[in-house]
Amino acid sequence: MKSVYKKIAGLTFALCATSAHAGLLSFEDINPGSNLDVINNYGGFSFGGDGPSLVFDASQQANGLKNAAIDGVNAVLNFSGHDIIMRWLGNSLINFDGGYWVSDSNDSLISFEGWRDGQQIFNSGMFTLNDTQATHIQLGWSQIDQIVIKTHSPTVWGMDALSFTQVPTPTTPALLMLGGLGLLLNRKKSTR
Fold first, then answer.
1. How far apart are CA 72 and CA 27, in angstroms?
2. Low-confidence ranges of the chain (pLDDT < 70)
3. Residues 190, 149: contact at Cβ < 8 Å?
4. Residue 24 near residue 159, CB atoms below 8 Å
5. How many whole angstroms separate alpha carbon 117 and alpha carbon 115?
6. Residue partners of 58: CB distance under 8 A and separation at least 6
7. CA-CA distances (angstroms) from residue 127 to 95, 109, 111, 139, 143?
8. pTM, whole model, 2 decimals?
9. CA 102, 104, 109, 114 torsion: positive or negative?
């Protein structure tokens, strides 16, 4: 009977340690000109904030935005110069690695906030974007459910190739397996 308990414990551990799912937001499967405010659940996120943002074909742009696309030809344009809120819609949390940003013209200043359950957990310093090449910004934030991209200058900017990892929630599989273990222990007591 000990081997059954060991198997159940091992299976519980395996389910609790399920691998995380990596994601990349490249915006390639969205038609250029689409407003991200109305696209629900793109890559598991809702996009909102003070200003609308559009998906655009970077190869058709002038100035710095032509350098915005890192993975394909599409990128996101924050044409209003306002903040963008990326809210994770899943039941789990995410680790947000970072992405690429570029300014349309002149320098742009942006910063980031990481939130979990309505509480701000992370706050980045200020990043300066230029219009000659996309800047890779590595944040490496863990277990958040919302990213706020704050614009500190009125310059238009673009972003692409945002990478994140979904962190699985071990609670449900663990509870199911522990419930099964409890049933087995109860069965053993009742057979004595």
1. 9
2. 1-20, 38, 51-52, 169-192
3. no
4. no
5. 7
6. 65, 66, 67, 68, 69, 73, 74, 75, 158, 160
7. 20, 6, 6, 11, 22
8. 0.78
9. negative
